[in-house]
Amino acid sequence: MNMERKNGLFKISVVLFFYICPVISILIDMLVFKEFLLVQVILKWCVFWGVGLRLFTAGLKQSLTPEFTAKSIFDVTDVKAFPIVRELGFANICFGFIGIISLFMFNFRLVAAIIGVLYYSLALFQHLIREKKNSTEMFVTITDLSIVLDLGIPLLIILL
Q1: Is the pLDDT score of 79 beyond 70?
Q2: CA 22 to chain centre
Q3: Domain ranges of the chain
């Protein structure tokens, strides 16, 4: 599969995990289960999809094919960088796992949200300070900002 097609699938998965799946889940929770604590419902599903499944699947991808992240996002082709990306993948699998289990273990939700806001904020900062960004990194920069807001606003409301 060529890199352009892989980038397209990557962007589709990000849109699904950050926007489409959380909105559908929030609507189902509110309409079917009559859950009306909107801030709690938003946080629940943004953590599950945006931190949990997104970071877990990203971690799997980075661990199994580190060259994709290195090449498509950071324009790094040196194979010496691939073990670093693979280790990033291991961390993402761990973060993602916490986000996934937060759906079933409420006590993990705030921790997963805080980890998610911190992780995506740091990643966003890194992307913002890089001068030369390819289109994939620009996409990642924008989506990092949106997930920081999607997680951060409800988290602040709950904590304050």
Answers
A1: yes
A2: 12
A3: 3-54+99-152
Neighbouring CB atoms inside 10 A of 160's CB total 5
Name 10's Cβ contacts closer than 8 Å, sequence gap at least 6. 68, 72, 136
Q: Cite the DSSP H helix spans in the chain.
A: 3-15, 21-31, 38-46, 54-64, 66-72, 82-101, 109-129, 135-159
Please state, rounded to an integer, the average pLDDT across all residues of the chain: 94
Q: How confident is the model at residue 126 (pLDDT cuts 50, 70, 90)?
A: very high
> What are 83's two structure tokens?
């073990």
Say what the pTM is.
0.92
Place of tokens 């509110």: 30
Torsion of CA 142, 143, 144, 149, to 10 degrees: 100
State yes or no: pLDDT of 58 exceeds 90: yes
Reported as a pLDDT band with limits 50, 70 and 90, residue 1 is low
> Inter-axis angle of helices 135-159 and 38-46, to 10 degrees?
140
Taking Cα atoms as reference points, which of 12, 98, 125 lies closest to residue 148?
Answer: 125
